[in-house]
Every structure is written in C-alpha cells, then in structure tokens.
C-alpha cells in the first residue's frame, strides 16, 4: 500500500527529525524567549516536518500523497479541539468582564490568614487557574500580588513561588478552559470531561499532600500582617459589581459538566450566560471596552462582542489587577491554534514515514506491565519536555508516540491522556530553559532552581501517576472485566 513505507527507518534515523526540532527550538527559545510561541516555534515545527518528509520520500520511498493525507487526518482529528479553544477564548473574556472571576478572587482573598498563607495561596491560585484555564495568567497576575504579600509576611521566595505555581498548575491541569488539557485529551482521542474526571484520581491526592505540607510550613512560621490584600479587594470592589449572584455562572457550568453535556455545548452556554450577566451587572465596563462616549444599548452590544472576540483592558487603579482583568478573547487563541496545526503536520509525517513506530518500538521492551508502561510514558514526557523546551509540543509528541501502544495493549485512551498531563504539563515549569520555566522565573523574579524544591504538586504528580499504576486502581483493559470502573 502506498500509505506504508517500503523501508522502515531505524530508531536512530527516526530521531533525526526530532534532533532537528530540538536544536532549532533551543536556538529559537534563546532568541525569542517567551515570545517563541508567537511564530518561531511554529516555523521550527514545519522545518522539522520538511526534514521528516525528505527522509521518508528518499529513504523509505513514501509517496507525498500518503504524507499529505496523514497530516490532513491528524488535523481533522483535532478540529473539535480547535473549536473548543475558540469558544474558550470567548468564555475567558466573558467570565472576566462579567465579574465572575473577580468575584471568586475577591471572596477567595478574604480567607488568607498569615498562619495559613502558603496553603491559602495554593488554593486561591488553584481556583483562579481553574476559572481562567491559564497557569501563566494566574501566576502573572494574582501570583505577583501574593508574592508581595508573602514577602511582607516574611516567607522566603522559594516557598511563596512554590505555593503559587503548585496551585496554578493544579487548576490549569483540571480546568476545561485550559489549552493543555484540551490538547492532551484531543491528541489521545479522549472526551474532554472524561479526561478531567479520570485525572482527579491522581491530581486530588497530589494536591492534598501538597496542602498538608504548606499548612505545616505555614503554622511553623511567624508572619506579620499586611494591608495588600485589603488594597486588592478594594480595587476589585471599586471596579466590578461584586455579588454572589455571579457565582450562578460557575455553578451552572459545574452542573452541565456533571451531567456530561458535550463540552462545546457546555462552554458555549457558560460563555453566553456570562455575557448576559455582564449586561446586567457590568454595563459600565462594557461601555469602557466599547470606547463609545455614552452608555446605551449600542455601547453594551459593542463591548460585549469585543469581550468575546478581542483583547480588552480595564483600569482598576492597581497595576497587577489591570493585568489580571485584561483578556484576549478568541483572537488570543490563534497562536495556540497555529502551533497545534503545525504540530499535527509533524506528527502526521512522523507516523506516515514509520519513524514514530520505529521510535516507540524501543519502549515496548519496558512495557510488559501497566506500571512499566505508565513509567515509560512519564519518563518520555519529561525527556521531551527537557529536549523540546515546550509543553505543547511535548504533549503532542508523547501522545502520538504512545497512542498506538496503549491501543494495542487494550488500555483506555484516558489512561494515556492522564499520564501525559501528569508528566508533561506539570513538569514544564520546573525546567529552566523550557518556555514555562523561563517565563515563570522571569515573571516572579525567582530562579527556577530556587522554587523547584517547593513546587510539591508538580513534583508529586508524576510519582502519583506511577504509584496509582502500580496499585492498579481504576485501571482496566478493554475487553477485560473491570473490578472497578470510573463513572464515565
């Protein structure tokens, strides 16, 4: 068949496109820094795809049509994820401008007490990250505010940053708004909410252990009071109409998720409901966004649509909060969508050329048992995170490399999607030259190796994934009678 290579490349030759990818990514990230995702990484992916196609057509005698078809099929496979990303862009804007996220932050900040600062910081960042779907936004906004509070209370930078990052990445990992969560589920062909529910088995215990550590550390620390929390609360209250009625939006969203309503429908309803609440509770903000001089139906309508599709900015009188309430809308998702499209081309070419199969065959010798398979996936995810220096590319490559193996061995796709998140998403921030580690170290002003020992959630998650696999809890093979099955 023309879809199959006539000559399977060796694992060593198959690594050539990946080595090209890693080398060019290293140079790109050193050159562009955190802006590498704005175009440089995408060009690198297409270049590595070209190298892969060249080897496939000259060495393996694969026809261009077969390579092209594989790329198209890969892109088709993530079409739903791309639509979800666009809706999430609209949702993130509407949740912020409607006052939903500010209300959650406002009430969350009231629970901070010096003795429980670290645990509270972790919880607040987790809640904000779940609501926004972005660990980067959480760390760059409320994380900065919490860092200042912690420093005023006498905590070391490593402990504060560790609590901020642990909470932010917990929220990012389980949020249906997170692009990495959507990416991991789509690459492995796992329904989004099914993926999230299954992740709870490893994620919740990891967070509980983390909170115990931060609670003990906080109780043993003598801290002084600060008025920074009050200042942030006043700024939020002066800018937004803070009311418990806004909590109806996340409650309704949670109900829809619990009832397993398809993710696109759930997210669309949630965004639309938040838009209605924005019209009711925050018309003054919609007028500010619209730029029209008079508050009327036209300014409300224009401001609402801009909230859904474009970048918005609100003046709160507090620089940190200005960054937090700024949104990017649907247009803010375009760099991620562009990256996914380019990565799907690379993955399709690697698969059609037989290179992906050649590389994964090396891992088969370590996969005689479930724990060995999960451990190999975790190790591969971490290795790719170190090599590619980008969590998105690492998620795509790890998912593509192991998808067929999990399928052939009869395991459900949700086991792979969970393991990918446990190994890739949370460890990216622990690597100094990774885009995540580099960005967060710069934003917080705390070196990666300084906060690394205190990012307990990020360190525990991969180990928890392997531990659960060793126990065999809630893990079953297809066509095998399950002793216990997760709902859904």
Automatic annotation (TrEMBL):
Q: How does it sit in the membrane?
A: Multi-pass membrane protein
Query: Where does this chain mainly localize?
Result: membrane
Task: Pinpoint the Na+/H+ antiporter NhaC-like C-terminal domain residues.
Answer: 167-472
Q: Where in the cell is it found?
A: Cell membrane
Indicate what this protein is called per its UniProt record: Na+/H+ antiporter NhaC
Per UniProt, what is one Pfam family of this protein? Na_H_antiporter
Family assignment?
Belongs to the NhaC Na(+)/H(+) (TC 2.A.35) antiporter family.
Alphabetical UniProt keywords: Antiport, Cell membrane, Membrane, Transmembrane, Transmembrane helix, Transport
């Amino acid at each position: 068949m023309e879809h199959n290579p006539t000559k399977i490349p060796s694992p060593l030759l198959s690594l050539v496109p990946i080595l090209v990818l890693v080398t060019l990514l290293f140079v790109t990230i050193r050159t562009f820094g955190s802006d590498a995702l704005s175009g440089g990484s995408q060009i690198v992916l297409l270049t590595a795809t070209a190298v892969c196609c060249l080897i496939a057509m000259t060495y393996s005698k694969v026809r261009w049509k077969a390579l092209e078809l594989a790329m198209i099929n890969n892109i088709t496979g993530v079409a739903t994820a791309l639509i979800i990303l666009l809706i999430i862009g609209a949702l993130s804007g509407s949740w912020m401008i409607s006052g939903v996220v500010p209300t959650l932050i406002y009430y969350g900040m009231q629970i901070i007490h010096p003795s429980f600062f670290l645990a509270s910081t972790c919880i607040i960042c987790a809640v904000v990250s779940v609501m926004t779907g972005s660990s980067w936004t959480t760390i760059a906004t409320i994380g900065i505010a919490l860092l200042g509070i912690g420093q005023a209370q006498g905590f070391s930078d490593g402990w504060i940053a560790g609590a901020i990052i642990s909470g932010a990445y917990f929220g990012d990992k389980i949020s249906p708004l997170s692009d990495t969560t959507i990416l991991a589920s789509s690459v492995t062909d796992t329904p989004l909410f099914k993926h999230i529910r299954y992740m709870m088995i490893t994620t919740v215990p990891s967070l509980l252990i983390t909170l115990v550590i931060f609670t003990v550390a906080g109780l043993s620390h003598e801290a002084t009071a600060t008025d920074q929390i009050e200042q942030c609360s006043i700024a939020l209250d002066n800018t937004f109409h803070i009311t418990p009625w806004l909590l109806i939006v996340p409650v309704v969203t949670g109900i829809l998720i619990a009832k397993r309503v398809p993710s696109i429908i759930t997210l669309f309803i949630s965004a639309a409901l938040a838009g209605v609440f924005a019209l009711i509770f925050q018309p003054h903000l919609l007028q500010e966004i619209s730029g029209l001089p008079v508050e009327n139906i036209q300014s409300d309508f224009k401001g609402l649509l801009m909230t859904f599709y474009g970048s918005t900015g609100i003046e709160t009188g507090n620089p940190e909060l200005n960054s937090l309430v700024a949104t990017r809308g649907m247009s803010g998702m375009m760099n991620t969508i562009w990256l996914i499209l380019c990565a799907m081309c690379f993955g399709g070419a690697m698969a059609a050329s037989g290179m992906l199969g050649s590389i994964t065959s090396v891992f088969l010798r370590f996969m005689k048992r479930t724990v060995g398979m999960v451990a190999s996936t975790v190790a591969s995810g971490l290795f790719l995170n170190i090599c590619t220096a980008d969590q998105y590319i690492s998620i795509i490559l790890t998912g593509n490399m192991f998808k067929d193996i999990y399928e052939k061995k009869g395991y459900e796709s949700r086991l792979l999607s969970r393991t990918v998140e446990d190994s890739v998403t949370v460890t990216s921030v622990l690597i100094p030259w990774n885009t995540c580690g580099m960005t967060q170290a710069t934003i917080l002003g705390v070196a990666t190796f300084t906060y690394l020992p205190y990012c307990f959630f990020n360190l525990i998650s991969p180990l928890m994934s392997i531990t659960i696999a060793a126990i065999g809890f809630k893990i079953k093979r297809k066509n095998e009678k399950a002793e216990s099955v997760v709902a859904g």
